[in-house]
């Protein structure tokens, strides 16, 4: 990111309360508040919305609404904790901006004595977790697009092309999409992807509502054994923590991010409503036969229904730019000193292309990649999206008298949220390992 990292010389002996990080940020090509909303929407709004009816099949109509709203609130709170902790760390260390891993490093380094030795380890863990999740997700999305194109095109044209051909065809436009380095120039891609997902959402709702819905034979509450699947689907559909600080750090008016109403409240309220509507009415329509993606329940003989699969695939294609931005920003900061300044442009082009080639090769060679990615995603996403913001908030407040509030209620709240995050972590890991054993056992 083209951000000024330090601004200590002009601040003299200012106290934490006097130092205002936003005033000292030097951001080239900052994003507007609306552009930030678009990026945040794209970070959480994806094809996961099409899996929400399946989640409600496991959770039931009543508990599904309650559980989805609860997850939305918890995730919104975790985003708030992460951003507010980062901003407070900026004030304490008198720097204008901190990224995700830098925030963790700062919090641990200036936290209680027992945590200080883990500062560098915390930074490295977050950096490498984001790299692993983001780059390997490219393989999954590449395979998703290729499989969708194979099913639709082979059926429409009466041909029998292998999935690998479609993987190679999909990789061609990605050569150009993944070369976009400026977050501002990714706004049109994110906006288009959001539009395609919403159109897919609208077409799906058309098929759901075109005939009367009968709720008489639908489950209202879940079986206990189905709860893990319900929460696992919802959490991984909503979570997009990797893009939060990068987009907040590039805002023209960062004070709008946590405002009320602000970027976080607007985006996650909208996401929660969409997910509830899709999940509730999708399950109400298709009942026990609801499939993993609700688009698969749509009539395959109708062109409009088939188009939803293509629109979802295109949305993922245009989303890959923003997914590439976060890990490439991390990776480039780690390796750019190995290249002369005059060759930075060529180096970036080569690295971005090389990683795409590697991920494409992995998708070609291991078509059952999803279970392994699910395992990595379960471990890293649960810790990054839920547990990490809670831990950072707790460590930051630990040495400050009264920071946990009356009767230390914030500590109690953090412990409860941490228990929920650990539950999601264990459940997601268990089911991913189970899938791997079933495929390769």
TrEMBL record:
It is a multi-pass membrane protein. Residues 1-30 are annotated as: Disordered. One of its GO terms (cellular component) is vacuolar membrane. Its main location: membrane. Keywords: Membrane, Transmembrane, Transmembrane helix. Residues 33-433 form the Amino acid transporter transmembrane domain. It comes from the Eukaryota. Pfam families: Aa_trans (PF01490). The chain crosses the membrane at residues 61-83, 125-149, 161-178, 185-209, 229-247, 259-284, 304-326, 346-366, 372-395, 415-433. GO terms for molecular function: L-amino acid transmembrane transporter activity. It is found in: Membrane. PANTHER family: AMINO ACID TRANSPORTER, GH04538P. This is Amino acid transporter transmembrane domain-containing protein. It comes from Anopheles quadriannulatus (Mosquito). The lineage of its organism: Eukaryota, Metazoa, Ecdysozoa, Arthropoda, Hexapoda.
